Amino acid sequence: MVEDHSRRVNNIVVLREFDPSKDCEGVEEVERRCEVGPGGELSLFTDLLGDPICRVRHSPAYLMLVAEQVGEEQEEQQVVGMIRGCIKTVTCGKKLSRNGKNVTHHNKNDDVLDDTLKPLPVYTKLAYILGLRVSPSHRRMGIGLKLVHRVEEWFRENGAEYSYMATDNDNKPSINLFTDKCGYSKFRTPAILVNPVFAHRVKLSSGVHVIKLSPSDAESLYRRRFATTEFFPRDIDAVLNNRLSLGTFLAVPRGTFTAGNWPGSDQFLADPPESWAVLSVWNCKDAYTLEVRGASRVRRTLAKTTRIVDRALPWLRLPSVPELFRPFGFHFLYGLGGSGPRSEKFVKALCGHAHNLAKERGCGVVATEVSSREPLRLGIPHWKRLSCDEDLWCIKRLGEDYSDGSVGDWTKAPPGMSIFVDPREF
């Protein structure tokens, strides 16, 4: 790997690949320093549980780089920055096919298609940047820019056609770095919806039955119904069979299907009930934990009081604030979709089922990320104070050799109704 150097006084900053045998402590220190919020404000800390590449290691290809400050006599070395990147193949658009022949799609309403036309996904190789950190003492030296450029070189070397990143819409320094200096453009603004895990179980609607699908059945359902959704991963089978995936759950009207008479996804989709919904659950708790710091004693006391009341009087189903002021884990809900006039109700039932699963496994919250235009969004229970109404995804085209000219430049494509958020990168 080519090394990159940036001089300051008598020190040299070198970019190199992360070495787990010697860099873990330095990386953790930079993470700690970067996550210290302004005095008196709440801050969210991440504990990577000794595995700095936990958020990329399940992707088909990944890389982590560190920026290391080295003294001129090579005696003192210090990690002062890092970046992570991964590459996968995803859906970037769709084309229509009639009897095996491609047909240009001009209909602006994606939900109204000629019955003789079959929508097919158009795939592209997509790279994702996450975990860019530069120690506060080494900012304004161009280290962040150099890290981005170097990981982009690796993306190009491995055939990625696009690169994207996600950040808080209020993170102006990050947005300015990527849009002003690195050539990225604002692309999508999904919402992160977070719901606390209460001390009591959530009661599900009596008219809904929840079935757990096998990974193969779940793959079949997703590929047949959601493969043309933007950002859908072509290796969905690897996601569903991953040890962190706790299962895919289907909500149907009670009296239609059960685990005992389940016909399989193909037959189900051939003659589905009027309304249904599906989602999958990813166990982030076994990858890393979170912790809210900077809360006043009054806030902590009030939060603790709600939990005490919730445990003592569970039948009242009072909302309680989970224990967020010490390390907590969470589950991520992905692959959310459905159909029919009552699909929001079925999504709500699935979220309740996921809540109860998270309660059994000792999680503090459940979270999901959906398009701001997602029709099923209203069925997802969440607390506004814990959620983010507008996350920001920025994208950049790395190469001109695009795989399918019928789609054109993805960076200029209008947003669809839904997106598929890969849990391996959340």
From TrEMBL:
Organism listed in the record: Prunus dulcis
Family: Belongs to the acetyltransferase family.
Keyword Zinc-finger: no
One Pfam family named in its UniProt record: Acetyltransf_1
Domain N-acetyltransferase intervals: 13-205
GO molecular function: acyltransferase activity, transferring groups other than amino-acyl groups
Keywords tagged on the record: Acyltransferase, Transferase
Superkingdom field: Eukaryota
Name the UniProt record assigns to this protein: N-acetyltransferase domain-containing protein
Keyword Transferase: yes
